[in-house]
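This protein record is not my work; I was only asked to verify it. The record follows directly below this note.
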Amino acid sequence: LDSIVIKGTPVQRFVAYEQIETALESGQPTIVITNYETFRDDAGIFPTFVSQRRCLFYWDEMSAKLSNRTTQLYSATKHMLYVLFASKPRPSWMRHLMLTATPIENDPDGLYSCVNLMTPHILGTVEEFHDEFVLRPNRISGKPELWDNLDKIEARLDFMMHRVSKDDPEVAKMFPEVIRDPMVIDWNPKHRAVYDRFTDAAADLLKEESGVNILSMIQVCQMLCDAPSIVKTSAANRQKFLGLLSQYGDLDEADIPLSGPKGSEAALQLLSMVNLGSLTDVGHTKLEAWREIILEKHPDDKIITHSTWAGYIFPVWEHWLDRWGVSYVTYAGTDKQKQMALDTFREDPSIRVFLSGDSGADSIDIPQAPVGINYNPPWKATTEHQREGRRDRVNSTFKTIYTYSLTMADSVEDRKREIIATKQGYHDAIFEGRAIESALSARLTQNDLYYMLLGDHE
């Protein structure tokens, strides 16, 4: 089937729109492929091709982009579908199909947002939906904090869902078996001592109300879990950025025309309180576990490694893979550079490792790799599921694939996993019919962040 792709610069997108117009004038069915941002960036052009035509929308991984009703992207999409054309709740010329393995990105509120774009009011108004399913809202923000009666949502949506589950034996036999190995890694004593000094310093900064964001402190501790050199790099970048900032006078940070990372203020402040000295990545036990998987457990297999800190961890990974004599590609840069890395990894049997941030956690298929490594945990369980989905494909030629999840013991990593695991009952409650009394919101609270950073620290 022929299709027209809308992407690239405004000029390139305009050329695509001219092609669409020509195709539509011929009276033939027209397939258009685009991204979600088109509804926002080309709000003055794209809707004219949709209005009053028989349209079928395939929303791929809709929950990843349109689960938050407060974004400009959501507003623009809703405006195009319903407000712009003064449409009835379900105009006769519009059909929708949402395709996803993870319909709930954060919590049921996100599912409501997506369903409301496809079939408005099937779950009632926002107020009605919250009255029925929210047991307790947050006293300050008003956002849902505790959910209830989630199994009733499935009954409400059953008529519009077609589900295929890998729990079905007939479906499962089409896919490789998945062996998951969650690895909790003990620290090198030298690195552990530095980590503890950092968390003590972070606690002091919080008591002093220094203004350093707690998420930034969590990021620094995550860097220590991954490789101590990243903290030094981040602090150095921050120092350089502050130097440039001083040259521009009273401008805000956002106004400084600087390409590249600005670095972490938390890293800079914490380093001023805790001296890393000559501490390096040598002997870091997570890097050693990573090396063991690549060189000893799976010396002949293609491997995908994911991290949430791609910009900082890539140079570290590349340095050690070069030292070990392991071939790799890095999924980074422009779209063209990413595609080249992906094609090379797929087609060249000599390339063993695919290095990726979470930009490579969805929308690409890599069945050539039987092994995946979560170098650190993402912020959402759905992201980890999507990472594994790059390899767990129907067209995989492997009977078994392996997923390793690396977690440093007694750290922000294992507490992050603990918190997220307690907040993932939604999918089972809504789509698997497993009734639960109530479910906490998946949105992280301030108390969650404090616990993640400091554990049971006073």
Residues 189-207 form the longest helix (19 residues). The chain has a mean pLDDT of 85. The radius of gyration is 24 Å.
